[in-house]
Write a structure and sequence with these properties.
- The protein is of the alpha/beta class.
- It has two domains: 198 residues, Rossmann fold (3-Layer(aba) Sandwich), CATH 3.40.50; 32 residues, no CATH class.
- Helices cover 27% and strands 30% of the residues.
- Strands 5-4-3-6-7-8-9 form a seven-stranded mixed sheet. Strands 1-2 form a two-stranded antiparallel ribbon.
- The N and C termini lie far apart (58 Å).
């Protein structure tokens, strides 16, 4: 396979046409050897526009989605970036070409080593990969200019919004399947943030960032004569909402 031709086609025919128009980002996508961050058995798919499995249920983000997330984050040469989820190190490598420094936190020790080795192999020296559970917070009190979540979260943790410097940006994919949205948050003041929805997409969840929803249905006494909240029956990982209709003939 001609990898250079495949890369050109990906950047020019897939990524650029999906409204990724930042010339510096497009140049970076062309210059960073994505194939060196892809597991060897999947290297032939390095420039396919799809999520590439990297093991343990994790993926390298689909290239056009990744490019749009990075374009929205827009790290600058004097800024420090915090990345949650290092994976193989490719996203950090892209950001390293734009930012002063990237601090990447990865929960899986094997991915920490993988990302460090990949980054070293391509000569990137301004990325630090740390092992830790970022769902518990990370270095409270530190401020970052940019924060990127490299997997989905059910909601953006408050501590990370508070870790943004004023003027800083945070980008994450928020929600649960089948409904997720890429979200951009900008800190506009000491106690104010601005949130914008970017586009719909799906990403595997980051470990320990997915909360379990609690459903409480308040049913009016006038409707069925029950003056107290009713909780639907949980079966496995799903909520059985039909039991209400079976028991109380609501529908």
């Amino acid at each position: 396979m001609d990898l250079e031709k495949a890369k050109f086609n990906l950047v020019e025919q897939q990524i650029r046409t999906w409204n990724v128009l930042n010339p510096l980002l497009l140049e970076t996508l062309n210059s960073v050897p994505r194939e060196k961050f892809v597991p060897e058995k999947h290297r032939g798919m390095a420039f396919a526009d799809l999520n590439i499995p990297i093991g343990d249920g994790q993926v390298m983000i689909q290239p056009n989605v990744e490019a749009r997330l990075l374009q929205a984050l827009d790290p600058l040469h004097h800024e420090v970036v915090l990345e949650i989820g290092a994976g193989t190190g490719y996203t950090a490598a892209l950001m390293a070409h734009h930012a002063q420094r990237v601090e990447s936190v990865e929960i899986r020790p094997e991915f920490v080593s993988l990302a460090q080795n990949n980054l070293s192999d391509v000569g990137i020296t301004n990325v630090n990969v740390h092992q830790g559970d970022a769902a518990r917070g990370w270095r409270t009190g530190m401020e970052y200019d940019c924060i990127l979540f490299s997997g989905s979260v059910s909601k953006i943790p408050v501590q990370y919004k508070q870790s943004l410097a004023v003027g800083g940006r945070l980008v994450a994919v928020v929600g649960k399947e089948p409904i997720m949205n890429a979200v951009h948050v900008k800190r506009t003041g000491a106690t104010t943030w601005e949130k914008n929805y970017l586009f719909e997409t799906i990403l595997p969840p980051l470990d320990n960032f997915q909360s379990h929803a609690k459903f409480v249905f308040w049913l009016m006494f006038a409707e069925i004569g029950l003056p107290f909240p009713i909780r639907p029956l949980r079966i496995g990982n799903k909520w059985d909402l039909n039991w209400l209709s079976r028991r109380y003939a609501l529908y």
